[in-house]
Amino acid sequence: MPVSWKNKRILSAAAGAALLAVLFAAFPALSCSSGSEGYLMEGIVKNKEEQRELLSLLSRNPTDSETRFALTNRIASNLLDEGLDEPLIMFLTSEVNANPDDPYAAYWLLLVAQAYLDQGANDMAGTYFARILENCPDLEVKGTSVHLACLQNLIRITETPDLLVRYYSDLITRFGSEINQGYAYFMLARSYERLGEWELAIQTYKQFLDYGQYAIQIPRVPDAYDYAKKIIDYDSSSKDWTFDTLDDLVAAITKAIRSYDSRSLDRYRAKVNFFAMSWKQDSSGSNAEADFAMRDFMVGNRIRCNDTLDSSSNPNEAYLRTWGWSQYVNVWYLYFRKVNFPADPDIHGRWEWAGIYYGEKL
Known about the structure:
This protein is an alpha+beta fold and 362 residues long. 48% of the residues lie in helices and 9% in strands. The chain is built from 14 helices and seven strands.
């Protein structure tokens, strides 16, 4: 899940308040006004006098990193409390640019990125998340890595598959013990798949399956485990049931039906992911898999099929109406589809008999 850093602190509230009290006591003359308030005072209502004093102290350019952090953090907190994102961004980016060796630079830039996220400026937020990863040493805030937060947010706002490959790879390599690795491996495999890197995708799907997360929830993927398993099973199969063209496949099927050649029909069926179900049934259901021999439904029955494909057929899918199979469900629609498996160019684009729909079309 993405991490929001709004109003986060590195120092405890008590420690921060104690340090500020010491600073205010040490420099009482500065508590009036330093003339350096500017845009950082505009819109401040709740802690106006404190903000003025903080700016006065910061203007002395303290060299101690803890002191500078306490002042900067409290000034930023006051801006956040008032919802002043633009002044916050200007202030923190100026601080980082003026103090490139600041050990807390990653934290300041993370607050900047979060402010851009709050504005809906995802591209700008992404720029700062990436800048932190590339230029700033990691920093832990309340037990959470800043780099981990950056990767999680970049993944959330990024659609580009090559970038997602980089982010998920980093996430697994660097923070494997702090994330759901099964989820990360699946999303990494999906990113490889979108890039057409099938060898890497299949290898990564295998790693995902090793976690055995059968009920894992992946956005826009109803059954992620089954999805990955089908790809792996298909890749490892002989794939010798495919035909060059739809016409060749239909001709072979109709010939076998009319000659009651159940063995040929069994041979023509896809050996992976073949289903047999009603039109309303979910193909991912456990009872959708066809585990029977065609002979069981052909002996003693008069099986027939249409001379032409159903009118709902299209360049990628086709249906052939057949009937006479049983007294319970007489009509079967045989479902053919073009093979979509770029991982194997030898069969990609060929045709297979992929399943059966029971009953008349809805």
